[in-house]
Amino acid sequence: MMKNKPHCQIAKKLYDAFLAGDIEGIYALLDPDIVWELVGVKEVPHFGVYRGIDEVKGFFKIISEINQVTGFEILQYTETEKGAYVECREQGHFEGHPKEFDLRSCQILEIKNGRITHFTIYQDTAQMLDAWRS
Questions:
Q1: Coil, strand, or helix at residue 57?
Q2: Least crowded by CB within 10 Å, which of 17, 53, 75, 100?
Q3: How many other CB atoms are there within 10 angstroms of residue 116's CB atom?
Q4: Is the pLDDT of residue 1 over 70?
Q5: Domain-wise residue ranges, the chain
Q6: Whole-prediction pTM value?
């Protein structure tokens, strides 16, 4: 399926590591100067821009404390010249907040020399904000 799609192969390794809870496996795929961005309002604590591995580690600490994922599914990988687009579906809620979210997102990976240099997530931020405020 992804034999001639090297960027999709790297993206798949990232999501396989994420789904397995292999955080070190995720870090191994990132460029040391990674820019990791979740586009959205600052009220939701994990939205924002994280620069470098140490800040990305801070991101994962935040989501491990607040984000209760009950379902995560990869819908599609798309190879691009600079990386890959990954369409996902995620369900869950925030710790201490009863309202659930069920949303789709587009996650864009820029890849250079086999390492992820920029990772951006676009998702239904209104739904996330609503769940956070519940």
A1: helix
A2: 75
A3: 23
A4: no
A5: 6-133
A6: 0.91
Tens digits of residue pLDDT in 49-107:
999 999 999 999 999 999 999 999 999 999 999 999 999 999 999 999 999 999 999 99
CB of 13 within 8 A of CB of 30?
no
Q: 3-class SS at 71?
A: strand
As given in the structure block, the two tokens for residue 39 are 């586009």
Give the domain 6-133 fold. Nuclear Transport Factor 2; Chain: A, (3.10.450)
Q: What are 66's two structure tokens?
A: 């607040």
> In this structure, which long-range contacts are made by residues 43-49, counting pairs with CB atoms below 8 Å and at least 24 apart in sequence?
43/129, 43/132, 43/133, 44/125, 44/128, 44/129, 44/132, 47/125, 47/128
